[in-house]
Amino acid sequence: MTPLIEGQPIIVVMGVSGSGKSTIAAGLADELGWDFEDGDNLHSDENVAKMSAGIPLDDADRQPWLETISSWIVEHEMAGVPGVITCSALKRRYRDVLRERDVVFVHLAGSRGLIGDRLTQRSDHYMPPALLDSQLDSLEPPEPSENAITVNAEKTPAEEVAEIVAVLALRRR
Ligand SMILES: Nc1ncnc2c1ncn2[C@@H]1O[C@H](COP(=O)(O)OP(=O)(O)O)[C@@H](O)[C@H]1O
Ligand SMILES: O=C(O)[C@H](O)[C@@H](O)[C@H](O)[C@H](O)COP(=O)(O)O
C-alpha cells in the first residue's frame, strides 16, 4: 500500500445515485494506487432493504452509515494510508460528520436527464432509478466555503479522473 503523503487528505467522491461515484472513485484509486472503498457496501442490511423497496433513507438511517464511513477514514488516517471512498453525502450536515477528519470532497454533478438515463441502464444494483428524484431533492450541493471540487459528471470517466488528479495535483508515487 502507498503510504499517506503528509497532509494528504482522504478523498470522498459524492453525489446522487447514478452520478458515477463508484466508477470514478474506483478509477481514481486505481490511477493513484490508493485504497478504495465503495460506501454502498457499508450500508446496513436494513438500509439496503429499504432502498431496494424504493423507500428513501432518512437522516436517522444515514447516521450510523456515516459513522461507518468516518471509521474507514480514521483507520486510513491512523495507518497513514491514502484512500478514496464514495458517499452520497447529499446534505451539508452529513458532510460535516465526515469533515471532522482531513477529507476533500469531489462532487460529481450532472443533469437529471443524463443521470436518470444511466440509472435506467444500470441493472446490477439495488438502488431503483425511481429514487433519483428524492436524491436530487435532498442534495445540497457543496457551498464555496466547503472547498469541494465539482466535476462535470457528463464527461468520460477517464476525463473526470484526469481532472481530479490535475486539480488536486496528485501523482502516483
Ligand atoms: N462518466 C461516465 N460516463 C458514462 N457512463 C458512466 C459514467 N460514470 C458512470 N457511468 C455509468 O453510469 C452508471 C452509474 O454509475 P455509478 O458509478 O454506479 O454511479 P453511483 O455510484 O454514483 O451510483 C453505471 O452504469 C456506470 O457504468
Ligand atoms: O444516502 C443515500 O440515500 C444512499 O446512500 C444513496 O445515496 C447511496 O448512494 C446508495 O448507496 C445507492 O447507491 P448508488 O449511489 O451507487 O446508486
UniProtKB/TrEMBL annotation:
Class of the enzyme per the UniProt entry, highest EC level = transferase
Q: Which InterPro entries match?
A: P-loop_NTPase, Shikimate/glucono_kinase, Therm_gnt_kin
One Gene Ontology MF term = gluconokinase activity
Catalytic function, reaction form: D-gluconate + ATP = 6-phospho-D-gluconate + ADP + H(+)
Q: Does the keyword rRNA-binding apply?
A: no
Short name of one Pfam family for this protein? Answer: SKI
The family database entries (CDD domains) matched by this protein are listed as:
GntK
Q: Which residues form the signal peptide?
A: none
Does Cell cycle appear among the keywords? no
Family, similarity comment: Belongs to the gluconokinase GntK/GntV family.
This protein's name: Gluconokinase
- Species of origin reads Subtercola frigoramans
